[in-house]
């Protein structure tokens, strides 16, 4: 397919429906509050102007896919042309919101993994799928077996309420409710009404019940968000050496990652999911945007039982990597985590004590309450973070693990490491510790082995990626020979 083609004309209908939805949702509260109908012609003008602008875009936009390049051109008043070399294309993703799906179209986004990307919005669904396959056809065949690697089990929805999203959504819902009430001057009345729901209970008990209600609302929201994002999730290894993730209930998404760009996987265990025995799997791959890269764009498997996550990670990596025995870090690393955690917990307590001494004794009581809760939690998290520290190697991968609130196990291909950074603060040096950071062109760009024994870590880094540290005289001889 080398001739010039146009986008799908149904974009005009999509634009009309979307703008009509915006006009109704934004204009209705204002119309109710003002009791005026002048917004009706304004809404019609918005929809008509938007459709006219989209018609100009559609009429004067064309694209073509040649053997070497993908090009898009817009010629109206000004003339612009953008092209991507096909051998630099790294991602080809399809997205379709409910309106797109109703019209049978999809948005195709083609990127190089840097800042260069072309968006074809919209194309007929079948045409978008065909173009995606055409752009990825150049990839050599993979030796791994093709087929499905994972599909969503509805029972995984039970992990949604234990995420940090639940309380955030609950508090955001209450904040939004009060914001809307303030528009109509009813914020104080709404708070009074909510507190009166609990009868003659003390104020503290009423506030506690409101917090519980907010958390319950957040749990419902978290479940709904999980279902919308991950329903129909499916991870496939496709012919030609690509991994394809498809997901979404209302808005469907299809994300394709070339396996030759993979440099490993990452098992991520947020605290709530870890306590429930679950984890998710992210890809560590080159050619993924870092400026606006969202977590879900690199996620191969949503939060699922850890055994399932370990199996998927092994299938993607090509060998078992979740049960690699890790080298524990020295006790001095535990001391550093305890000191940092206690400092973080006691800092607000110190502020409250100072303010209490200057202003009111009530703040002294609040400071004591915060200390009673924060100090034990800080100690527990610090000890847990230390237990999670470790590093090791298996086959062609090196493994590093760290974190408590968000525990991450990064499985990084040795041939993907392009350098090591070794850092020692004054306090680390006194305790014989160092932080070793593997630099790579994939994922976040750097994966650290934190507070490892300095001598052992240097030997490990030199042996894990032979030759990288060899030019430095400080590398022990046994590490250079490893």
From TrEMBL:
The chain crosses the membrane at residues 36-56, 159-181, 201-227, 340-359, 365-386. Keywords: Membrane, Transmembrane, Transmembrane helix. Residues 58-134, 393-456 form the YdbS-like PH domain. InterPro entries: UCP026631 (IPR014529), YdbS-like_PH (IPR005182). It comes from the Bacteria. This is PH domain-containing protein.
């Amino acid at each position: 397919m080398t001739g010039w083609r146009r986008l799908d004309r149904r974009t005009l209908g999509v634009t009309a429906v979307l703008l009509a939805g915006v006009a109704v949702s934004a204009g209705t509260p204002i119309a109710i509050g003002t009791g005026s109908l002048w917004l009706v012609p304004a809404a019609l003008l918005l929809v008509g102007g938007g459709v006219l602008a989209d018609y100009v875009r559609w009429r004067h936009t064309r694209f073509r896919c040649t053997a070497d390049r993908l090009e898009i051109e817009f010629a109206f008043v000004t003339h612009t042309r953008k092209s991507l070399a096909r051998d630099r294309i790294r991602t080809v993703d399809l997205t379709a919101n409910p309106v797109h799906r109703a019209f049978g179209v999809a948005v195709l986004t083609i990127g190089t993994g840097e800042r260069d990307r072309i968006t074809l919005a919209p194309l007929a669904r079948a045409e978008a799928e065909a173009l995606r396959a055409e752009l990825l056809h150049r990839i050599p065949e993979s030796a791994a077996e093709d087929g499905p690697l994972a599909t969503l089990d509805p029972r995984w929805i039970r992990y949604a309420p234990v995420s940090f999203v639940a309380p955030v959504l609950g508090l955001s819902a209450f904040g939004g409710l009060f914001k809307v009430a303030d528009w109509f001057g009813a914020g104080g009345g709404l708070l009074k009404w909510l507190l009166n729901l609990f009868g003659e209970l003390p104020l503290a008990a009423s506030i506690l019940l409101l917090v519980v209600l907010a958390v319950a609302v957040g749990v419902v929201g978290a479940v709904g968000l999980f279902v919308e994002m991950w329903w129909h999730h499916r991870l496939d290894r496709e012919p030609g050496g690509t991994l394809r993730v498809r997901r979404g209930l209302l808005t469907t998404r299809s994300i394709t990652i070339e396996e030759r760009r993979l440099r490993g996987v990452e098992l991520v265990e947020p605290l709530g999911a870890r306590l429930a025995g679950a984890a998710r799997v992210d890809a560590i791959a080159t050619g993924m945007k870092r400026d606006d890269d969202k977590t879900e764009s690199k996620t191969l498997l949503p939060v699922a039982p850890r055994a399932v996550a370990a199996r998927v990670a092994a299938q993607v990596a090509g060998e078992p990597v979740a049960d690699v025995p890790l080298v524990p870090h020295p006790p001095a690393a535990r001391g550093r985590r305890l000191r940092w955690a206690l400092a973080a917990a006691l800092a607000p307590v110190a502020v409250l004590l100072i303010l209490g001494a200057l202003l009111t004794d009530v703040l002294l009581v609040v400071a004591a309450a915060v200390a009673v809760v924060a100090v034990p939690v800080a100690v527990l998290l610090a000890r847990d973070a230390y237990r999670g520290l470790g590093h090791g190697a298996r086959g062609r991968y090196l493994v590093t693990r760290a974190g408590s609130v968000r525990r991450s196990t990064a499985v990084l291909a040795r041939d993907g490491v392009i350098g090591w950074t070794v850092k020692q603060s004054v306090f680390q040096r006194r305790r014989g510790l160092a932080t070793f950071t593997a630099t790579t062109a994939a994922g976040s760009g750097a994966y650290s082995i934190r507070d490892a024994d300095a001598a052992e870590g240097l030997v490990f880094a030199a042996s894990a990626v032979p030759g990288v540290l060899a030019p430095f005289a400080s590398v022990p001889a046994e590490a250079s020979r490893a």
